[in-house]
Every structure is written in structure tokens, then in C-alpha cells.
Specification:
The protein is α/β, with parallel strands linked by helices and 317 residues long. Helix content is 38%, strand content 16%. It folds into 2 domains: 2-177 and 216-239, Rossmann fold (3-Layer(aba) Sandwich), CATH 3.40.50.720; 179-213 and 243-277 and 294-316, UDP-galactose 4-epimerase, domain 1 (Alpha-Beta Complex).
């Protein structure tokens, strides 16, 4: 019952560490803090079952872990588009060499392996909702490719270790997830809108705002991930919330929680920005008996409470 979580000081990784510890696991989180922060796991500092190691998992000799390991969960990677565009090579390295290092650790320790993949594997999809069988529509030389193709490589590498070496692997395709511990300045839609609303600035909509996303609250996502960890499924599984919403409506839903926020402003749409994204979660419902429970209104309430506190803390610091 000892798990290694790469990216354990990030948004999702830190919530995953909390869940694993609550389920009785010992956890070693490995992170180089490129987009995460030790603050996200500070509340675990006194927990004897938790350790945090500062390491870049993409280095050639990384992930040399002593002792027994039962599960390796590979969550390290910049995930926000502005983050991965700022760190394009590091993103490709952690999705290639980093993934292989994590798989090698699982192989050496005879541990199970869990790959945090993404809906970005579907690219700018030509069908919606996206089923796991859909192969995707990715521009391999566009700016987003550093993330999309690294994750597609990670999936292929995971399946190669499963088929060639018999490593017991799982792959989750995570759709847009939000909640406490996202960075206020990580550049994704929700933190941007909340930061803008808190600082009295207009909310920035890229393009006409008619593109869609489907936002999942973090607790629901982690619950789906834990169920997938315990399942026997080796092929990818979508985990996300299938309630699809336009970005314009999403911005309005956030704006209505604040007084006196200036009107929305429109800015250019980034290249290859997917027009639609919505998970088909029938596979997760069928094999994991999982579906999200927290609706957007409730999830936003919880997230805004965190961001308001974080905003005041950062202002006073
Ligand atoms: P995040 O940026 O908050 O967390 C990523 C963590 O990985 C950070 O703590 C970062 O410092 C760490 N990291 C990155 N490169 C590393 C390296 N070379 N060595 C060690 N640590 C490294 O992002 P997140 O939203 O928590 O995403 C976590 C994982 O989930 C990522 O793999 C991401 O691709 C995947 N994912 C997230 C979402 C989402 O909506 N949040 C959607 C799809 C997929
Ligand atoms: N977006 C926006 N304004 C912002 C940030 C993002 O309109 O300030 C749009 C972005 O172009 C995309 C959607 O919101 O269409 C979701 O973006 P995000 O970066 O959160 O995640 P993505 O799903 O693109 O990885």
C-alpha cells in the first residue's frame, strides 16, 4: 500500500495524495514545482505516511525509489495551455522520458501503473461527445502539439509496457477539471475569470465564446480516478462531467457571483483551440459504477470560496 505520485504537489496530484492517504496508502509525492507548489501539500507535512521529494522526473536517472512500491501514478506535466506553451520542451520531456521513467519504476517494483492522460488526445474533435474509441483530430505541428502529442505518446508507451512487459496499467482521459488549489494565475479559463472578477477587471473571452467545455469538480474526478485504479481496465477511460457549456455562458455563471464586474471583453482565439469538448462517460458509468455528483453551481461555490481566500492571502503577502 505504498504509492508514488509524480506531480503530487500540483492541483490534481495533491488532491489525489489526500485521497490515497485517506484510503490507507503511504504516499511518496515527487515534484519539481515547475507549475505546482509545496503549499498544496503543506497540510500533510506532519503525516508520517506522506513524503515529498523535489525531483525532475524527466532526468535520465530519476525515480530511483528505495523500498516497496505498489502503485506508480504519473500526474507530472504542465496542464494549463499557457503553462505548456511557456514550457514546451519540458512538457514534451515529462510526457516522454518522464513517462518512461515512471513506467520503468513500476516494472522494477512489480507495481501497477496509472497514466494521467487527457481529453486533449482527441484534439479539436470532429465528433461530440467524445467516446474512448475516437482516435482524435490533432495538429501534430501546432503549438498545442507539445502537450497533445506528448500525452498520446504517453498512452502509446503505457500500452507498450502493458503488452510487451505485462505491466499492470491504467489510463484515464481527464476532461477539464476545476476546484481549490488551481493557481490563480495558471491561465486556464476558470482561474482567469475568477482573478479578473476579484480584481474588478473585465472577463476575457477568447474568440466568440461559443466554443464549449464540460467542467468537472475535482472531488468527482478523484473519485473516478480511485475507482479506475482499483478496476481491471487497461484501455483508456474518460472521466469528466458531461454537462457541456459555452465559454461565454461559463463566464456569465462566474460573473453573477460578483458585484460590479465590468462587461466581458473579446480577445483572439488561440490557434487550434478545440471548438467542442464533452466526454461520453458511459464506459465509466458501466465499468466503474461512477458518475459525477457535484453540479456546476455547487462546485463553483466551493471553488470561489477558496479563490477569495487565496486572493486576500496573496494581496496581504
Ligand atoms: P498542475 O500543473 O497543477 O500539476 C502538475 C504537477 O506536475 C505540478 O506540481 C508540476 O510542478 C509537476 N511537474 C511537471 N513537470 C514535472 C517534472 N518534470 N518532474 C516533476 N514534477 C513535474 O496540473 P494539474 O491540473 O494538476 O494536472 C495534473 C495532471 O493531470 C497532468 O498530467 C495533466 O496533463 C492531467 N490533466 C489535467 C486536467 C485538468 O483539467 N486539470 C485535464 C486533463 C489532464
Ligand atoms: N478561455 C477564454 N478566456 C480565458 C482563458 C481561456 O475564453 O481567459 C477559453 C479558451 O480559449 C478555451 C476555453 O476557455 O476555449 C478553456 O480554456 P482552458 O485554458 O481552461 O482549457 P483548455 O480546455 O483549452 O485546455
Amino acid at each position: 500500500m505504498r504509492a508514488v505520485v509524480t506531480g503530487g504537489a500540483g492541483f490534481l496530484g495533491s488532491h489525489l495524495c489526500d485521497r490515497l492517504l485517506a484510503e490507507g496508502w503511504e504516499v511518496l509525492a515527487v515534484d519539481n514545482f515547475i507549475t505546482g507548489s509545496a503549499e498544496n501539500v503543506r497540510h500533510l507535512a506532519q503525516n508520517a505516511k506522506f513524503k515529498l521529494k523535489n525531483e525532475d522526473v524527466s532526468k535520465t536517472d530519476a525515480l530511483k525509489v528505495d523500498g516497496e512500491v505498489g502503485y506508480v501514478l504519473h500526474f507530472a506535466s504542465p496542464a494549463s495551455p499557457p503553462d505548456y506553451l511557456k514550457h514546451p520542451i519540458a512538457t514534451m520531456m515529462v510526457g516522454s522520458i518522464g513517462t518512461q521513467n515512471a513506467l520503468e519504476l513500476a516494472l522494477r517494483k512489480n507495481a501497477k501503473f496509472f497514466m494521467a492522460s487527457t481529453s486533449e488526445c482527441y484534439g479539436d474533435p470532429e465528433m461530440s461527445p467524445q467516446k474512448e474509441e475516437y482516435w482524435g483530430h490533432v495538429n501534430s505541428v501546432g503549438p498545442r502539439a507539445v502537450y497533445d502529442e506528448a500525452k498520446r505518446f504517453s498512452e502509446a508507451m503505457t500500452m507498450a509496457y502493458y503488452r510487451h512487459y505485462g505491466v499492470d496499467t491504467r489510463i484515464v482521459r481527464i476532461f477539464n477539471t476545476y476546484g481549490p488549489r488551481m493557481r490563480l494565475n495558471d491561465g486556464r479559463a476558470l482561474p482567469n475569470f475568477v482573478f479578473q472578477a476579484l480584481s474588478g477587471q473585465a472577463l476575457t473571452i477568447y474568440g466568440d465564446g461559443k466554443q464549449t467545455r464540460s467542467f468537472c469538480y475535482v472531488d468527482d474526478l478523484i473519485d473516478g480516478i480511485y475507482k479506475l485504479m482499483l478496476s481491471d481496465e487497461h484501455m483508456p477511460v474518460n472521466i469528466g462531467n458531461s454537462r457541456e457549456i459555452t465559454i461565454l455562458e461559463f463566464a456569465e455563471r462566474i460573473r453573477e457571483h460578483f458585484d460590479n464586474v465590468p462587461l466581458i471583453i473579446f480577445e483572439p482565439l488561440p490557434q487550434d483551440d478545440p471548438k467542442r469538448r464533452c466526454p461520453d462517460i458511459s464506459k465509466a458509468k458501466r465499468i466503474l459504477k461512477w458518475e459525477p455528483k457535484i453540479n456546476l453551481e455547487e462546485g463553483l461555490k466551493r471553488t470561489l470560496a477558496y479563490f477569495k481566500q487565496e486572493f486576500s492571502r496573496q494581496r496581504s503577502a
